[in-house]
Batch of 3 targets.
Target 1
Amino acid sequence: MSEFWLCFNCCIAEQPQPGP
């Protein structure tokens, strides 16, 4: 579960929406 949140937060921090 942590992996999901980590990637999610990372993606959002870089761009306004999640990448592929």
Target 2
Amino acid sequence: MPNSRSLSSRNSSHETEASKPRTIVKVNVHTCSDGTIDNDETHHQSFPIHKNHICHYSAFFDAAFNGNFAEAESQEVQLYEVMPETFGIFVNWLYTQEIMSEDGEAPDIRSLVHLWLLADRILVPSLQNQAIDLIEQTRQQKGNDRLPSELFPIIYENTNADSALRLYVVRVCSAPYLAQIKNAKNYPPQLLLDIVNAIRERATGKDRLASVPMTPYHVTEEEGEGDRAKRTKIQ
């Protein structure tokens, strides 16, 4: 049975550990690729963050701040081609485990896609899973069968073939109940190919072997006198 001296010593040790100041690191976020600073604060922002928080959830930042890189010495990381708004949602998630915008509202699908891509880049799989679940919940709640097509080029430029987000997009876009694609401008060629292949993969063996009803593909054979006269003149 522990004596009072050992308990006192243990409590004292715990209090000392808890009272130690936590290291603050800094992440400088830039929307551009070279860190150019302009007068628009929405293009760049510095985020002071508790080191233990960000390193616990992100293998990327853990390696940066605790590895053999210059960032480990300076305790400062430059992060390019990321919107400060997106990184702010990530920082809020670090402390609350909830995905919320600065105004306390649930982000829209566009913001959630950018958040997923950020989480993929900085290696936070738990945030990726929360974000993609919220994307689907938002899509269903708004009654939108489709995802915003303007996001497709961004997704395909920043993911590979086996990306979970890309596979999800293909699954939604290849649903049989969707209306026709009227404008392919926002559909990367690879996405269109993926949609076709996804539809084929879901088809059963019976569907693939079934005969094609040919009537819809026949030209009209009946001609009126006027049509026959016109054809004679053309010939």
Target 3
Amino acid sequence: MSTNNGGLSRRRGAGGGGGEDSTHTNSSRPSSTGGAPGGGGGGGGGGGNHGHRSSVDGGKVFADPRDLQIENENKTQPRLTLMEEVLLLGLKDKQIATMAGEARLGYLSFWNDNISYTLRGCILMELAFRKRIAMVKDPNRRKYALADRYIEVVNEKLTGEVLLDETLKMINSTQERMSVGQWIDLLSGETWNVMKVGFQLKQVRERLAKGLVDKGVLRTEKRNFLIFDMATHPVTDSAVKEEVVKRACTTLISRSNGSTPSLTDRESPMVFQQLRTVTMVCAAYAANVLENALMYLNHEMREVAYTKVDELLSDYSQYPFVSPASKNEVAGNDLQMEIIAAVLNVFTKMDSIL
């Protein structure tokens, strides 16, 4: 099938369809808009202002520099999101005998309700780390508790992660400003307001697991539990989970001076690498899955780890962070760091912590 020479042989998808980067999949898709035929002097439309044009075999190819910005940003982001790391720690990776004599592998505990609520908080922290949302810049906000301060979208650019983009669109499209605590409740479906039921994120665990399957970390299997057939997600790339477990254990049992490690690794391309690890450990603790990472430690070291995570959660659930190591080393927007502290502050009030 041939296309008009005046049509765009490469363009950005309109309107953020799904949030994924489409620079490769749409490279040969003909333009569906009524572009100017022939010479293409006006065929660029708005694209002439934003794109770079080059001649390939007599045709015209437009490359949007914003695509390059997305690619460059993706290179600086870690492979897994905070939500995926917490979910990965929650997955059982050892054979466990059941009443029916079966073995359950690659599943989340049926009785753990805390992880669902915690994952919604992790979504907000991940958006803050990616500089998409921040606290509303209002001098009077300090009169209110961290969890009661309003948040807003400061960068509408999609991330390519489905759950993050879905949440970003909801926050951006809402006329009413809401606080960190309110958003976590709404995303979790914990509201009596029938007008806001639509804010609930559905099937977050399963969607995160499928995302890890797409990234090659997990695989999907069907297993029979008593009278039910359920999809489980055993670990395929064990090195990824081992790295997450090792990072968590190193943070909690390191014998560094002070209660927390240094928060900025300036030689690393990963933004806020150590702060991300601190938040991941605290989220895993609130979600009741941290014990899966500490099961390889002896009893004494586990006690040290639990004492350390209590200190971390206390230090980073208020802003400015009270840790001496953090005062002069966190490079970033205070309004975004406030969201991190606010989410951790919400975690401190969960039943799993109390």
